[in-house]
Structures are given as structure tokens and as C-alpha cells.
Design a protein that fits this description.
mainly alpha; 6 helices
Length: about 100
């Protein structure tokens, strides 16, 4: 019995994070990125992040976040930031695997 349990543990995910926790973790990371790179200049974007209801909504706010950071700090810094944020979506959103910002 023990061997069987360990076999199935290898095949399945070790820790399954509840969907709500994933959304809040991604939202917090995105809001921190806005504060770090844009400061108080992005109240509208902060509001959009706050009101995003699900992971899909947060996914589609990524381009707007990148554009704002690129305008304020430069494209290289915006790409680096977005790569880190896109990694948070991996295993939770199908577009994360195909995104050009998800590649190291």
C-alpha cells in the first residue's frame, strides 16, 4: 500500500493551491509591481487590479501593466517584470506556457 501511495504522489501535484489563493497571490504580485515601478502614477491600474474577479481578468491586464512600466521605466525593465509575473500564471492559465514573456 505504501509503494502505491508514493507512486500516485509522484504522478499528481504535491500541493494543490485553491483557485482563490492563486488569484490573490497573482493580484498582490501585480500590485507590488505597479507600486515598485510606477508609484502613485497608476491609480487606475491599481483599481483595475483590485476589481479583477479572476485569473483570466488579471491575465488580460498584463499588457496594460507592461505598457505603463515601459513608458515609465523602459521596455527592458518592463519585460523583466512581466517575465516574473507571467511565471506566476504557469500551471494555472493556459496562455502562460505559450507567452513570450514566460521564457527565461
Amino acid at each position: 500500500m505504501r509503494l502505491r501511495q508514493s507512486f500516485w504522489a509522484l504522478l499528481g501535484p504535491q500541493d494543490i493551491e485553491p483557485p482563490g489563493a492563486v488569484v490573490e497571490r497573482v493580484r498582490l504580485a501585480m500590485r507590488c509591481a505597479v507600486e515598485e515601478h510606477l508609484g502613485r502614477d497608476a491609480e487606475t491600474l491599481q483599481r483595475q487590479l483590485e476589481y479583477a474577479q479572476d485569473l483570466e481578468s488579471l491575465w488580460y491586464l498584463r499588457p496594460e501593466l507592461m505598457n505603463a512600466i515601459a513608458a515609465h521605466c523602459g521596455e527592458a525593465q518592463a519585460r523583466n517584470c512581466l517575465m516574473g509575473l507571467t511565471a506566476l500564471f504557469r500551471d494555472h492559465h493556459p496562455g502562460a506556457a505559450a507567452s513570450r514573456f514566460g521564457r527565461p
